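Q: What would this chain look like folded?
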Amino acid sequence: MTPDEGPHARGPAPSAHTVPLTKEPEEPREPAAPGPPGHDAPPPPDAAAGERDTGHRTHRPWSARRVPAALVASGILLAAVATLVDVVAVRAGRPAAAWRRHLADELATRPVDDVWMLTGAAVAAAVGLWLIVLALTPGLRHWLPLRSPSRGLRASLDRDGAADLLRDAAMRVPGVGAARVRVRRHRVTARADVRFRDPGQVKDDLTAVLHEERDGLALARPPRITVRVRQRTP
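A: My prediction, written as structure tokens:
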């Protein structure tokens, strides 16, 4: 009786001590994880990255606008050089250029409601409005911004690449014979041809798969998904 009771008495004791021993190393590791590199070092950066990700918004990258900037700069440069050369020539004692005299006479004699004056003003206003729109809009509408863990890191995904990934995911759904996916900034439109199975079930499965694939793309602003299916008889 006593030999049997001894092991039973000692049996629960190790188990009672084992449960705290497995939890005790975890409690000090949580505050000490960012210090020494170890097995538990990666989780804190992920948590911090998640906090930083939710703390700031990822914006679309801005276009360099090289072509409009080059055109405007070239026009201004040519006009400035021509005017400067003519002014220097006049200061040197030569007569003003014919084009400048003609332009000065036209601006002085033509009324404000003249057709050419109105046309020139409309063109100048259109060019100015175009430049303002280019300056205030980011451009690069074909790129979708991705979520980033920090403010200094930015990444984008091409719309065609996102459409290919979503189409491949749609083709893996049983019953889908053909799929076409169009990705825009705020909406994803998917059209699928159903070869077999119930179209309603195929649409539900396709919607779920596309939502899962879209969430896996890590887009900063996930677009809405619209699914349309149609029955195709073989």
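Residues 66-91 form the longest helix (26 residues).
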